[in-house]
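Weekly structure sync, notes
Attendees: PL (lead), two postdocs, one rotation student
Agenda item 3: pending single-chain targets
PL asked that the sequence for the first pending target be pasted directly into the notes so everyone works from the same version. It is reproduced below exactly as submitted, 306 residues in total.
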Amino acid sequence: MSSPAGVVLAGGRSSRMGMSKAALEWHGSTLLRRTVGIISRVTGGPVVVVRAPGQALPALPPHIEVVDDPREGLGPVQGLAAGLAAVADRAEIAFVSSTDLPFLHPAFVRRVLRAMLDGADVGLPLVRGYPQPLAASYRTALAPVAERLAAQHRLRPAFLFEACTVARLGEDALRADPVLAALDPELDSVVNINEPADYQAARERPAPEVMIQRSGSLAGGGRGPRLVRAATVAGAASAAGLQFGGPAVAVLNGGQVRAEQVTGGQGPDGQVVMDGQVVTDGQTPLVTGDTVFFRSADRAPDPQPV
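Predicted structure, written out during the meeting:
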């Protein structure tokens, strides 16, 4: 089976918010940048952002693809059709998300994608009393079905679910995954932001708690790991108190990320190289449970923390 893809729906009028939710600031990044980064950490296939025609988007990594929803105002089923069609020739399944899930965790994405292993067409979480169609997994072959429903103005996701096989994941089933239960016990992955009060309440929460450790010339007398609050790799570098002008290497959960000229307090300067993918900012997102290990790039690799 091909690697799963990711689809992020960034369109919509955002009438209750009063501005584009995709561009809302999030700990030095944006909601859209964070969402595509989280999904990219899980999926090995393409990640596509579906926007309304002419919609301006905040800066995105170069590997993120952008497609236009051909018919504005028809809701998520039309966006779903456009997104699934854009990746159908490269992936059999895709995780589909709205742009406004600031607490989305990779463990949640992995669990929802695994619901497809038994042959279902949709992996649909049922959390906090509601189905979550924009935090769900879909077979990309459903693109024509979704397109037909949109053309018929049958715009509720429930109509799509009536036309296919759905694996419904209740809260007990989701928390049966021990990793998800440990890292997102309240299933905050599905918390979305619809109006300014929602955004304010979410933004007031602290950044994720992550472990950082410095070594070699970057240790500064403190080699031991410590917990900090950081939502991005650049934020973790700043929290580590890095004061250096040359490249540093950070090991993120066993995968190498190179942060060049990230200076404490200056934010996302330079480049980040993650799993062979180069991005031009330091906004690679971090989540609860991450470990970031910093060392000088001009020395042999240090043992990774356990």
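Discussion points:
- The first strand starts at residue 5 and ends at 9.
- Residues 260-280, 300-306 have pLDDT under 50 and may be disordered.
Action: rotation student to compare against the earlier draft before next sync.
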